[in-house]
Amino acid sequence: MLKIKTLPNEFLKTETDLIVVSLFKDVIPLKGDAGYIDWFLNGQISNLIKKKKVFGNFKETVLLSSLNKLPTEKILLVGFGKAANLNSPKLLYIFSSIIDIVQRMKVKDFGISVCIKGVSDSEYNRIAGDMVEGILKGFSKIQLSESDWTVKIAEEDKRRFLMLNRLMRHSVETFKERHQIVLEG
């Protein structure tokens, strides 16, 4: 079974086995969730970028320990490439790929957030819709009846939380016909 929980609180306060965070090649200094995590980890991500070990290239992945500074054990940084080049096909592909990655890691409980802050409502709607569709596309390749999965999507902005819930309900309805899924939030 797949449980998708939308949570009306700060993403980095979400208890999970793993949090997935977007990293952009052209967003320096780091902003959003990546910036907060970098701060919590005393600049660990910035140092990796400075040493040219991490770039934010499209589909690049880096696994970090939270060093017990967040309510998760692991942090998966996923490269989204250049923020200016984000389009629906790329977003659908990357979010679907994230499900492949967490499945290979054998992580059944993870958190993820809509990857861009500070965008218009229509852009947020598009990105959040692509995220949800990509996640569901990734899960469509998995036998959900064999194990339980939990995806937690946090959105602290109340208005956007309601938008996200509407998108989730709409997207899940078609997916639900073929798979066992529970939507909470």
Can you offer a commentary on this structure?
This protein has helices at 32-40, 44-50, 88-105, 121-139, 158-176; strands at 2-7, 18-23, 61-65, 74-79, 109-112, 149-154, 181-184. The chain is α/β, with parallel strands linked by helices and 185 residues long. The protein has one domain (2-184): Leucine Aminopeptidase, subunit E, domain 1 (3-Layer(aba) Sandwich). Strands 3-4-2-5-6-1-7 form a 7-stranded mixed beta sheet, covered by helices on one side. α4 links the parallel β5 and β6. The chain is globular. The chain starts with a strand and ends with a strand.
Structure characteristics:
single chain, 185 residues, Leucine Aminopeptidase, subunit E, domain 1, 5 helices
Strand and helix order: EEHHEEHEHEHE
Q: What CATH architecture would you give?
A: 3-Layer(aba) Sandwich
The helix content, as a percent range, equals 25-40%
List segments where confidence is low: pLDDT < 50 over at least 5 consecutive residues.
Answer: none
Number of strands: 7
The rounded distance between the terminal residues' Cα atoms is 17 Å
Name of the top-level CATH class: Alpha Beta
CATH superfamily: Leucine Aminopeptidase, subunit E, domain 1
Number of domains: 1
Cα radius of gyration in angstroms: 15 Å
Strand order of the largest sheet: 3-4-2-5-6-1-7
How many alpha or pi helices?
5
Strand content is 15-25%
Indicate the mean pLDDT.
Answer: 88
Q: At the third CATH level, what is the topology name? A: Leucine Aminopeptidase, subunit E, domain 1
Major sheet description = 7 strands, mixed
User: How would you sum up the global shape?
Assistant: globular
Which structural class matches the secondary elements?
alpha/beta
